[in-house]
Amino acid sequence: MTAITQSVDLDRRGRVAVLTVNNPPVNALSQHVRQGLRDGVKQAIADSAVSALVIVCAGRTFIAGADITEFGKPPREPGLHEVLDLIESSPKPVVAAIHGTALGGGLEVTLACHYRVGVKDARFGLPEVKLGLLPGAGGTQRLPRVVGVEKGLAMMVSGDPIRADEALQHGLIDAIVEGDLAAAGVGFAEKVLAEKRPLKKIRDLDEKLAAVRGKPEVFANFRKSVARQIRGFRAPENIIKAVEAAVSLPFDQGLKRERELFVELLSSSESKAQRYFFFAEREAAKIPDVPSDTPAKEIKKAAVIGAGTMGGGIAMNFANAGIPVTVVEVAREALDRGLGIVRKNYEATASRGRLTAQDVEKRMGLITGTTDFNAVRDADIIIEAVFEEMPIKKEVFAKLDAIAKPDAVLATNTSTLDVNEIASATKRPESVIGTHFFSPANVMRLLENVRGNRSSKTTVATAMAVGRKIGKVPVLVGVCYGFVGNRMLHQRGLQAEKLILEGALPHQVDKVLTDFGFPMGPFAMGDLAGLDVGWRIRKGRGAKSPVADRICELGRFGQKTGAGYFRYEKGDRTPIPDPEVEKIIVDVATAQGITRRHVSDEEILQRLLYPMVNEGAKILEEKIAIRASDIDVIWVYGYGWPVYRGGPMFWADQIGLKALRDKMLEFQKATGDAFWTPAPLLVRLADQGKGFLAA
Ligand SMILES: NC(=O)c1ccc[n+]([C@@H]2O[C@H](COP(=O)([O-])OP(=O)(O)OC[C@H]3O[C@@H](n4cnc5c(N)ncnc54)[C@H](O)[C@@H]3O)[C@@H](O)[C@H]2O)c1
Questions:
Q1: Where does residue 332 rank: exposed (0-12), middle (13-18), buried (19+ CB within 10 A)?
Q2: Model confidence over 12-66: pLDDT tens digits?
Q3: CATH number for the domain whose boundaries are 2-266
Q4: Cα–ligand 1 centroid distance for 308 (angstroms)
Q5: Which of 142, 286, 522, 571 pairs with 43 at a CA distance of 20 to 30 A?
Q6: pTM attached to this predicted model
Q7: Are strands 115-118 and 94-98 parallel, antiparallel or unpaired?
Q8: CATH number of 604-687: 1.10.1040.50, 2.60.40.1120, 3.50.50.60, 3.40.50.740?
């Protein structure tokens, strides 16, 4: 065995050279890996005792992509293209032997090889689109030559990997192998030699491209089929263009086109935001005073109190992750109703072919419903999701305190109540934490974990770990009204209400936000959530929201009653502007002495989003969020902020905090409203010419 570089070894097994990449944890394509591959391949080609080569990886996976620590730094030799050229033009057959995930540049390496074999649980994908980029090392040119244009487009535009059986079916791999992988690779290479198989260079394949040549409708149909999911993103269109080039241009010119389209993306604001967000999400896992080696409690059993809207969804998360979960309700009927909805949800997923009937039963089998509180006795984490009323929450926590294991984590799903006060109902406030799920709880990825004053480090570490285990993106926040997400959302809501009185209409306000990239605007969102919830809360508090109150008085509670701010046709969720609502708005404005005027889209956007950024600044200063990027993660995963705009704090930095502060002062001057007072942190950073993220 010869070490070529620190991460690549060259070995010989008979007449087959084996290059092994060993660059933990994921065998990323660092400079020394590229150099090791290049020099190793050169040596093997030069060695007259070698007739074929195998590229294989040590550790848990094949090369799973670029080295992210090299992002944004000047490129270092050798470039990946040079390495791939060398492999593809090798006069001796090169076989890639794949396990784990061959992703991005890793898959592109295999596409330069003449043959590919993989183990049965290997995965293959080009996920560059998720960073707003395209596969820039020949992937857009080679993949369609192997799997065909439609499959290649689908893989690259979704970025989702495929399994080995599918890869075999589409010709992406030549065989599924078992046993020692290097040996299997060598065995395959021996077969290639024995059968005198040709050097299969993907660059020379044309059959699958020829099949769509002169058929522009293939691309037109694809564009149409993904139009909704790629709205606002730039990379998917460039990927499609690159594949069009693969079909219409010779290979080398296609590569050039790929390069141009790649460079265009690299400098685009969308990719910049997406790459920022990639790191933001990873940062959110880091808690300065709770290092990653803090012992977290292993969760073998969970319990959820309350089988309502949230409780059922939360229980599903545990069942989906294979963790048994007990659901406790006060009465049998509520329990049956709640678990009935859970079953219906699973069956709906099964009817779409995304779960088998056995999966449904297996997951339902992991959920045990009961009205006996004592059943939580052996749970490692208990999540309370009962009515949003402090006395009820306190009663539940006092009960849990008496019954739960001494080291169990006691969590509350409250969205507005004080976690510290809830914790005070127990003799173990160190074990109490908020786990704020978003609705629908089985779907939404965001989890705001709310750290109480007394929450222990183990409790925090456990809540973060269990969040990840059940497929969420947990972000740690502090206690305050609305935590991070809803607190900022509230500011947006206040302006939305004002805007319709001043002259805009709900559909105009909503359109500004959907054009910005949100899945829906504040009024459609209100209709979806149900306007009666807020109405009841306002009545309880003696608060008013004149337009919303009058809409509710008419029994218009949103989608569920067929009308709210908008009206809805039966069985259709499309909001339709309603003259009846417009009349209410105009009446209320008149009654308040407001002269309605034309409000520009630009003003709507600024008035909706700048106050959110300002609230974000307060949240940072109060240390409710650990860092600005955490706020962005919350908004992207919890509220549909378009990821190609990074998140509110990143977005604000792109505008420039000085411009943002000045605009707020302008609004303040025009309205005399203290609402527009810029937060001290915003003022300070603007004065210093800094941004939230560079601060
Ligand atoms: N609905 C949302 O969008 C949402 C989002 C985030 C957080 N939350 C929070 O989640 C919690 C639950 O909200 P929801 O929308 O699921 O309410 P819900 O009314 O749908 O469900 C509450 C359930 O708790 C049960 N319950 C009440 N007291 C109980 C007790 N003592 N023991 C056992 N079960 C009891 C009720 O029977 C009911 O089924 C609230 O704190 C709420 O603020 C809700």
A1: exposed
A2: 999 999 999 999 999 999 999 999 999 999 999 999 999 999 999 999 999 999 9
A3: 3.90.226.10
A4: 5
A5: 142
A6: 0.95
A7: parallel
A8: 1.10.1040.50
